[in-house]
């Protein structure tokens, strides 16, 4: 997986322009987690294909900053003779620049690829930030893929639960209350939510890459490639003015004089700020109000999530029953099932579901040490066998017309050693601690994160990723703003929020464990909330040290497995049904 | 406790000066939690004597903002026909002003009584903030108490563990690293730490009210009333320039031209900012570096804490043994022990300790419903009897020459009902959950707070105060910067930090429960920390529903009680010793 990067070409371009360096973020103008290949400049320049990262190309050094999830993967994908690997959070780029470069160094950046808060933090570095609008990477990227032109489809009101007119009216009210004239929308899931559409520019991310302006009377201008609109009913477009995406910044500048724009400092490209300021407009920096509206799912959306999870759960059970049967047989026959074969089979089971569209992210199908890379994706050259003496981790999900699923199970098909069993038990106990919690309405994610970690902390262990993220409604798999993590997340959790709970443990080169359910926040006794599982998949208990579980933990597992069995037994294949019965058998009986 | 406030006099003064209102905070120039009576303008104006609050006096309304601890107490102390009571945190004053007053209203404030961050937040309210330097309240406060002139004593290096010269050198290094010329010190505990002195201006707060300037070469100018210095050895003062406190602002202004001052935006009066700016200086807004240096206790300080807690623990046990013996006898005799009698007796036991100086805060000695007011102090007119059918809560501590103690026990002398037992058990379980935690070094307080709340949350209950605070070394009972609370606290917890753990539960008019130990953070296995109890006092288990405790919880209690018994048995009175043995008997045996 070593990769020779086109650094020399970029460096000579920088030299020509008297630039001392250039920032190349893993981002596009839409803050997409999964970039279109067209936009993945970081992979082009470095070879690293993870979902977050930043390269700094200097004349004599090249640095790649990646987070905890990607420390292993980056070192495998990048040519370490060209790139140094740094930690994205432990060494913030602005501090690195401040401490390592002399004041006034000219560092280039593309203003569509940087949000305002990054820009402001970089300004504290003492470097001279030079905005370059002409896409310098494009000049050296001979084999750049085509710009995405995915068709856009309508999301019917019967599935979204609210008409575009009603949503626009709510947004207009919010803008009027804040005393702003325009909301500049660049987040594609917020545009998709507002206009009740879904896109297909990027596999697994059904949101259209486009821009929009909402006026404080609810009028919408949509900056979208017309080629993407062919399938849309004309009635959808009736009340919306359509422009080319290339016209977006110019239009912001044109409209700006004397007007106030609401921009989201953490999500809007700083290019929009420059356009508004050049046009003589004012900026109100606030989170995009749609982000929170979208996170509070309505009853019809929640019903859709539940329904899609029932379908997805049945597909999981058909897959797990097949896998449990085949793994020992194939291992004994000397022809073990591999990660890639398993994920293909799983996809085939999902494709049997009526409402299934596509995967909701690239499946992580990882055996043994591969699972220690949290966001590993199998490839022919890394494709491990699934056997009885190592864990197999599967993190996958589906986009359904009425919801999005995301779940992880870590599976044992044989006899694992005491250390692996202890680690698995600790991860399970953390999962149970958080998912069974009752908490005051409005509690924030960072207040609860440690419940999922404590059993690992007791062993002196931890995991270097968040504990839970929001999930979109047939939209992005990682939806803002809610998160449960060590990092502060200011958004109160309320009934109708949909999140994951996914503690894990990873031992490099040995094994990776993660257990993940998607949950909805539901009202409990007055003033308090609970989590209710959307995910309906048996949790493998064969690697658990049962004596370490409390009565309450066992009661939760037995209740959950009863729910899974009763809900899904009628829906799974007749060959999977006996497996389901066994996999959901109550622990209480086993212990007696 | 109703109080008729001198509002009319203040209002006519405001009218004369064409002011629409005035802010009267419960604060002095030193951010003292316990103000000198001389400085307690909020009590003068409103009658409320809690440790935090803010009044806003307008022409036709007067508002008192207090936090969750004081909602009950404020309504008892204040004339509710004159004052409306508001919530200090739920209704931030700047938002209240913004929403309720028209733009440009002239609101007066005293710039020595407001820190920069409050000033900046008030500036967003749209009001015209008018700094008044001539102490208008003084004009109407005929019976104002005398300005405090408490003697200052030396803290020997053998107890502080580090010389003033060494501390000044460390501070000078920090200033040089930050590129600033001067540190303006206004926090009295930071001055006390730096100069190895203790003061006596305010009972229970052994810190001198004064100001100081530290230059980046380590030179110190101390702005302190010379009358307070009589007891100090001349050698202590040799290397320090002494000025009058009244000269402080003028001196800042004199020194400022072309110089950079480090000011702590959350703690330095905005008057210092005005002085530096008027003198042509620059300001570097950063937390006072001494705050963190002081929080990381050295080995000699930690040894002092441990030793003072052994003394304090013995005094507690002598008191509790006496109380346990007397409460039923005196109740039966129709002459029950009262809150005030109990706290006097407790003080007498503490005064038997060699190193005891004074109480570390006003004792909370509260029976039955009085304990539902978290920061209640007994008075003849509220003085409840201590009986066998209600909880008695005692929160008290001592200032010792080598440390400061703070502990709470809630006691049962008879048979309490099921609800009280359940509440007590939940508070105890929260206490045990947090105190037994192992956590990654550097974890922040808000990440751990919820462990202490979860057993209450399970019952749909909670408490409206923080879970733990730092404690000074023969200094302030609430020491910054570490805190465990719902609110974000960015300071990483490291070995050598000293905090309390004190969950509670309060049912207005019925009962209040709190269990509090002081702990030090200690290193555990590599990368992890634990809490080690400094407090050595038996925890009353007579109101616990023992079947609700886990094996681990019982093991912690038994281990703790064994430590208390073995450490203190030789030190308590012979009459208290049998009580100690019984109060620390292992639960394991009782259960079998």
UniProtKB/TrEMBL annotation, chains A, B:
It is an enzyme of class 3 (hydrolase). Residues 305-521 form the Peptidase M24 domain. Residues 7-132 form the Creatinase N-terminal domain. Pfam families: Creatinase_N, Creatinase_N_2, Peptidase_M24, Peptidase_M24_C. Keywords: Aminopeptidase, Hydrolase, Metal-binding, Protease. Its EC number is 3.-.-.-, 3.4.11.9. One of its GO terms (cellular component) is cytoplasm. Residues 527-587 form the Peptidase M24 C-terminal domain. SUPFAM superfamilies: Creatinase/aminopeptidase, Creatinase/prolidase N-terminal domain. GO terms for molecular function: metal ion binding; metalloaminopeptidase activity. Belongs to the peptidase M24B family. This is Xaa-Pro aminopeptidase. It comes from Buttiauxella noackiae ATCC 51607.
């Amino acid at each position: 997986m070593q990769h020779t990067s086109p650094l020399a070409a970029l460096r000579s371009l920088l030299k020509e322009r008297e630039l001392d360096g250039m920032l190349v973020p893993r981002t596009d103008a839409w803050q997409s987690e999964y970039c279109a290949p067209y936009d993945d400049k970081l992979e082009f320049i470095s070879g690293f294909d993870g979902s977050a990262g930043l390269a700094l190309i200097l004349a004599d050094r090249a640095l790649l900053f990646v987070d905890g999830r990607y420390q292993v993967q980056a070192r495998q994908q990048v040519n370490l003779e060209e790139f140094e690997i740094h930690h994205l959070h432990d060494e913030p780029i602005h501090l690195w620049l401040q401490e390592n470069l002399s004041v006034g160094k000219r560092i280039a950046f593309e203003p569509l690829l940087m949000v305002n808060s990054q820009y402001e933090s970089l300004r504290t570095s003492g470097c001279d930030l030079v905005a370059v609008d002409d896409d310098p990477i494009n000049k050296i990227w001979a084999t750049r893929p085509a710009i995405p032109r995915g068709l856009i489809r309508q999301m019917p009101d019967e599935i979204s639960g609210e008409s575009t007119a009603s949503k626009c009216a709510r947004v207009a009210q919010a803008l009027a209350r804040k005393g702003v004239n325009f909301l500049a929308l660049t987040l594609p899931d917020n545009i998709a939510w507002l206009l009740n559409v879904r896109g297909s520019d990027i596999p697994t991310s059904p949101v259209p890459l486009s821009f929009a302006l909402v006026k404080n009377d609810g009028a919408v201008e949509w900056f979208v490639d017309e080629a993407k609109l062919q399938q849309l009913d004309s009635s959808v477009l009736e009340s919306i003015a359509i422009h080319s995406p290339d016209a977006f910044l110019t239009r912001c500048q044109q409209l700006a004089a004397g007007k106030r724009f609401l921009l989201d400092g953490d999500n809007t490209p700083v290019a929009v700020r420059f356009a508004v300021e050049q046009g003589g407009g004012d900026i109100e920096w606030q989170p995009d109000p749609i982000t929170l509206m979208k996170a509070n799912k309505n009853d019809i959306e929640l019903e859709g999530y539940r329904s899609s999870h029932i379908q997805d759960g049945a597909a999981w059970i058909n897959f797990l029953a097949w896998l449990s049967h085949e793994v020992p047989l194939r291992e004994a026959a000397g022809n073990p099932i591999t990660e890639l074969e398993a994920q293909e089979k799983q996809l085939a089971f999902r494709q049997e579901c009526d409402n299934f569209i596509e995967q909701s992210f690239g499946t992580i199908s990882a055996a043994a040490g591969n699972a220690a890379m949290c966001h590993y994706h199998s490839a022919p050259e890394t494709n491990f066998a699934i056997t009885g003496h190592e864990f197999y981790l599967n993190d996958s999900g589906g986009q359904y017309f009425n919801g999005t699923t995301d779940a992880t199970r870590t599976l044992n098909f044989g006899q694992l050693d005491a250390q692996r069993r202890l680690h698995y038990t600790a991860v399970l106990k953390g999962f149970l601690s958080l998912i069974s919690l009752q908490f005051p309405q409005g509690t924030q994610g960072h207040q609860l994160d440690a419940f999922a970690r404590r059993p690992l902390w007791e062993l002196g262990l931890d995991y270097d990723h968040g504990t839970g993220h929001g999930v979109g409604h047939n939209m992005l798999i990682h939806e803002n703003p809610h998160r449960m993590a060590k990092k502060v997340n200011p958004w109160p959790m309320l009934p109708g929020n949909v999140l994951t709970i996914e503690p894990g443990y990873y031992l490099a080169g040995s094994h990776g464990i993660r257990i993940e359910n998607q949950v909805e926040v539901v009202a409990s006794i007055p003033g308090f909330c609970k989590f209710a599982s959307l995910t309906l998949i048996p949790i493998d208990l064969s690697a658990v040290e049962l004596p370490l579980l409390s009565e309450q933990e066992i009661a939760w597992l037995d209740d959950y497995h009863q729910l899974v069995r009763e809900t899904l037994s009628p829906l799974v294949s007749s060959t999977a049904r006996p497996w389901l019965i066994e996999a959901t058998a109550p622990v209480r009986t086993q212990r007696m």
